[in-house]
């Protein structure tokens, strides 16, 4: 029997996300948390499924209640979980998140001995990589072996099968033994990648040629700003092989960079949708889900990025990530009230 086919196979980290219920409270004053499911590739898989894409997830969980929690949510959402292995002796990961709008959202990762970083080449061979239209990988998946080798192998397999490979840069400095290694790993993957998704900080972290300029402690997380010339980083990144770069710009929407066959770069902005921000965490993953949905439906990149912006705008008004990504009906109603895409 031939393997099932999917619009999107998303590969990488998954977790239980514990979001502070005490909005605005400093972390030490939090009294309770709400439990959701998270992790960049997991959020994107759920977001794309809610929009109507047929999605599968290649992550790993431990033989623990947290793993059961993650798998139960994914099954209820309709994300295919058949290719998610359980790793004996490993733990499903967790993240604790504070919410202090408008600009403080501290994260604490619990990923020691985590299951998803133990994804192997055999796990990739058991997954429908050759039967997906798009493979989504993430930067954190390149942070350690065996996940690093498995991720690169999956990208090779997808390329060989004619699938599109998308890379979410997903820079988490505290997940790397040396944050400068992030750029080394990303640059090794870029020749296999068609579409890159990331923020200005992530682009600079990935492409700075003066690696000595990056000195980040393991206590620094997603709000770290990395000095650099983003335009130079864009040109360098696209020179490695990708033909699309979707630069996430928060309230300003997205900037789309397209490289043609002659190496010429076109860029244009896809405006965002102004909303009152409750929590920015997960907005970028919702953007990725929306943009990939549009691309897979043959939309031009401005329209696809606008849909991504709308998905992100909806999520920033809500409490969590995957659990709060919009359906297609919700996001189309949202944009219709604001002048359309």
Outline:
The chain is of the alpha/beta class and 341 residues long.
List the helices and strands and how they pair.
Layout: E1 6-11, E2 15-20, E3 33-38, H1 40-51, E4 55-58, H2 65-77, E5 93-97, E6 107-110, H3 121-125, E7 132-138, H4 147-160, E8 164-168, H5 180-189, E9 195-199, H6 200-207, H7 230-239, E10 244-248, E11 254-259, E12 265-270, H8 283-296, H9 301-316, H10 328-336
Helix pairs in contact: 1-8, 6-7, 8-9, 9-10
Structure description:
By secondary structure, this protein is an alpha/beta fold. The chain has a single domain (6-13, 41-86, 114-336), classed as Ribokinase (UDP-N-acetylmuramoyl-L-alanine:D-glutamate ligase, 3-Layer(aba) Sandwich). The chain contains ten helices and twelve strands. It has helices at 40-51, 65-77, 121-125, 147-160, 180-189, 200-207, 230-239, 283-296, 301-316, 328-336, and strands at 6-11, 15-20, 33-38, 55-58, 93-97, 107-110, 132-138, 164-168, 195-199, 244-248, 254-259, 265-270. An eight-stranded mixed sheet has the order 4-1-7-8-9-10-11-12, with helices on both faces. Strand 11 (254-259) and strand 12 (265-270) form a beta hairpin. Helix 1 (40-51) crosses helix 8, helix 8 runs antiparallel to helix 9 and helix 9 packs across helix 10 (328-336). The longest helix has 16 residues, at 301-316. It is globular and about 55 Å long. The N and C termini lie far apart (41 Å). The relative contact order is 0.14.
């Amino acid at each position: 029997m031939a393997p099932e086919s999917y619009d999107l196979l998303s590969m990488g980290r998954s977790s239980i996300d514990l979001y502070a219920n005490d909005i605005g409270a400093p972390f030490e004053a939090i009294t309770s948390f709400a439990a959701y499911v998270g992790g960049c590739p997991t959020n994107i898989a759920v977001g794309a499924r809610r929009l109507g894409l047929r999605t599968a997830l290649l992550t790993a969980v431990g033989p623990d209640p947290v793993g059961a929690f993650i798998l139960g949510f994914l099954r209820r959402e309709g994300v295919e979980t058949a290719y998610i292995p359980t790793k004996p002796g490993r733990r499903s990961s967790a993240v604790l998140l504070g919410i202090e709008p408008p600009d403080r959202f501290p994260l604490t990762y619990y990923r020691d001995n985590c299951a998803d970083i133990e994804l192997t080449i055999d796990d990739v061979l058991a997954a429908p990589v050759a039967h997906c239209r798009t493979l989504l990988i993430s930067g954190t998946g390149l942070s350690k072996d065996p996940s690093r080798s498995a991720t690169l192998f999956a990208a090779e397999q997808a390329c060989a099968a004619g699938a599109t490979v998308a890379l979410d840069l997903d820079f988490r400095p505290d997940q790397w033994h040396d944050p400068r290694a992030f750029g080394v790993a990303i640059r090794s993957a870029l020749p296999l990648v068609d579409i890159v998704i990331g923020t200005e900080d992530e682009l600079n972290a990935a492409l700075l040629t003066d690696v000595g300029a990056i000195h980040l402690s393991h206590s620094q997380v997603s709000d770290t700003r990395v000095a650099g010339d983003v335009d130079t980083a864009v040109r360098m990144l696209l020179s490695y092989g990708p033909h699309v770069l979707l630069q996430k710009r928060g309230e300003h929407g997205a900037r789309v960079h397209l490289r043609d066959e002659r190496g010429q770069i076109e860029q244009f902005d896809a405006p965002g949708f102004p909303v009152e921000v409750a929590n920015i965490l997960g907005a970028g993953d919702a953007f990725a889900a929306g943009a990939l949905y549009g691309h897979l439906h043959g939309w031009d990149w401005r329209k696809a990025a606008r849909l991504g912006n709308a998905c992100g705008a909806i999520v920033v008004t809500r409490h969590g990530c995957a659990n709060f990504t919009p359906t297609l009906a919700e996001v189309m109603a949202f944009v219709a009230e604001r002048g359309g895409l």
